[in-house]
Structures are given as C-alpha cells and as structure tokens.
C-alpha cells in the first residue's frame, strides 16, 4: 500500500507500515496532538505512516452514541493534518455517495468490515482512484475476500489492500486466525492487521462495545511475526474519555514501546 502513496515517508525500506490515529475526529486539538506524536515516533523508527481518523461513525449500538462533529468539519481537520504534516490520511466511508466527497480530503478510503460486500460502495470507492483498504468482515473467510478485491480491480482501480480485524466468535468476542494473513496476501494485495478492533467485545448489554486493550501488544507482535505488511491501531491520549471505542484503544504514551518491539521483531524475521 505504501508504494501507492507519493507523500508517505520511508517507503523504500523493509519496515511494516502503520495506520494509526483516533477512532473518530473529536476535535482539531486532539487530532493534531495524536498526529504530531505518532509522526515523531514513526520518524524515529523509520516506519511509513498513514494517519487515520473517522469523520463520522455510522455503525453505533445506541442512538445516543457519538457519531461525529460534522462531516465537513472533520474532513477539513483530516485535510489540515495531511497538509501541515505532509502525511497521507485515511478515513472510512459508509455509502456510495460519500466516496467522492471524502476523496477530496484524504488519500486512502477505508471500507468498514460490515460493508465489505456492498458492491455499489466498493465500485464508487474504486472510481475515485484513491487507494482503497477493505476491512475483512467479521463473518467472512480470508479466501472470500478475493471477491471484494476483484470488484475494485474490475472497476478500474488496482490500488487495493485488505485489513484483518478478527472473526466473530460467539456473540461478544472476536478471534484472529493468523492463517488468514498469508491467505489474503496470496490474493496479491498488501494485508494489514487491525490490532485494536480485533480485541473488541461487541454486543454488550449496556449498548457500548467493550475491549481488551491489554492484549494489543500480543496481537501486534504475532502479526509482525507472521509477516503482515502493515499494522492498524487506534490511539488516544486518554482512552477513558474518548468519544468512540475508548475501550479498545491504545494509550498514546504506550505507543513508543510497542513500536520499538515490533520493529525489533520485523528485523529478526
């Protein structure tokens, strides 16, 4: 994926690439703080980096859950990070109509896991000619993701990657089947491991998704050992007050030690 982004740094090296940022754009100050710190760390470890932030959260358990600060306002914050820090940025889209709108502000369009089979969404995203990253549905096999990839390629866009984010296990848990990483790589696309959403605990009785952030390091280290192309994670200065998915986000002050370990494993393999 890093080969398709002219504004990504350290693309000539053999390191994994990182997609990281807050779950949702809550305000400009927090987003800029996260971007500045992650860029500092990725420069230190020479990791190609893509800033991530959702401009809107469409998949919520409850009607009163946080969905965003306004589409245009959030997208402009993403564009400002892209311009001021000279890094590529990504956000997720939810309908075909959103593809062209979001493409004006970001470099990579992300297709949410629950929507990975939505043909009109995949086609609309492909037609923007942006890089497209598709999250594997929690209900999908690794092999079946070839059809999502093919829809995008058949629509005239070869710039597509896949994101592993766990498979539904029962009602309130997810598991990562690491066999899926090489299986999806065999489709001929880069594969990213989402280390935070893989640890979600959805469908809680209170209507707020839980998580196991203490296991982020375990998930990430295993992914690097298997040979994943990139790591995806969500991070926040204080996950306890994050407005979306705080239960499974990595505290920003823990990111440096994690990246140090992941780079060391990458060098070994």
Quick structural summary:
The chain has 269 residues and is of the alpha/beta class. It has helices at 28-45, 71-85, 96-103, 119-127, 146-154, 180-185, 216-226, 255-268; strands at residues 17-21, 49-52, 89-92, 108-111, 131-135, 160-164, 167-168, 174-175, 191-194, 200-201, 210-211, 230-236, 250-251. The strands form 3 sheets. Strands 1-2-3-4-5-6-9-12 form an 8-stranded parallel β-barrel, surrounded by 6 helices.
- Estimated helix fraction: 25-40%
CATH top level is Alpha Beta
SS-derived structural category: alpha/beta
Q: State the major sheet.
A: 8 strands, parallel, barrel
From the 3D structure, determine the CATH topology: TIM Barrel
SS field, number of helical segments: 8
Which residues sit in consecutive blocks of at least 5 with pLDDT less than 50? none
**Beta-strand fraction estimate:** 15-25%
Order of helices and strands: EHEHEHEHEHEEEHEEEHEEH
CATH architecture classification name: Alpha-Beta Barrel
Oligomer: single chain
**Strands, count:** 13
What is the end-to-end distance? Answer: 20 Å
Strand numbers in spatial order across the main sheet: 1-2-3-4-5-6-9-12
What average pLDDT do the residues reach?
93
Give Rg in angstroms: 17 Å
- Can you identify the CATH superfamily? Aldolase class I
Counting structural domains, the number is: 1
């Amino acid at each position: 994926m890093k080969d398709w982004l002219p504004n990504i740094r350290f693309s000539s090296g053999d390191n994994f690439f990182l997609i990281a940022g807050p779950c949702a754009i809550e305000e400009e100050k927090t987003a800029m703080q996260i971007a500045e710190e992650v860029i500092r760390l990725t420069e230190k470890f020479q990791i190609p980096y893509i800033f991530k932030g959702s401009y809107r959260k469409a998949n919520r358990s409850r009607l009163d859950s946080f969905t965003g600060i306004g589409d245009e306002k959030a997208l402009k914050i993403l564009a400002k990070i892209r311009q001021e820090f000279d890094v590529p940025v990504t956000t997720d889209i939810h309908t075909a109509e959103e593809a062209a709108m979001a493409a004006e502000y970001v470099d990579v369009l992300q297709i949410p896991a629950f929507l990975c089979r939505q043909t009109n969404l995949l086609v609309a995203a492909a037609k923007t000619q942006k890089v497209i990253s598709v999250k594997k549905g929690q209900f999908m096999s690794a092999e079946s993701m070839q059809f999502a990839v093919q829809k995008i390629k058949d629509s005239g866009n070869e710039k597509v990657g896949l994101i592993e984010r766990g498979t539904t296990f029962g009602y309130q848990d997810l598991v990562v089947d690491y066999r899926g990483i090489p299986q999806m790589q065999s489709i001929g696309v880069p594969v990213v491991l989402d280390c935070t959403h893989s640890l979600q605990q959805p469908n809680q009785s209170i209507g707020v998704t839980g998580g196991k952030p203490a296991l982020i390091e375990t998930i990430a280290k295993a992914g690097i050992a298997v040979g994943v192309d990139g790591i995806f994670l969500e991070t926040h200065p204080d996950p306890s007050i994050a407005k979306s998915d705080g239960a499974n986000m990595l505290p920003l002050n823990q990111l440096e030690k994690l990246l140090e370990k992941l780079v060391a494993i990458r060098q070994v393999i």
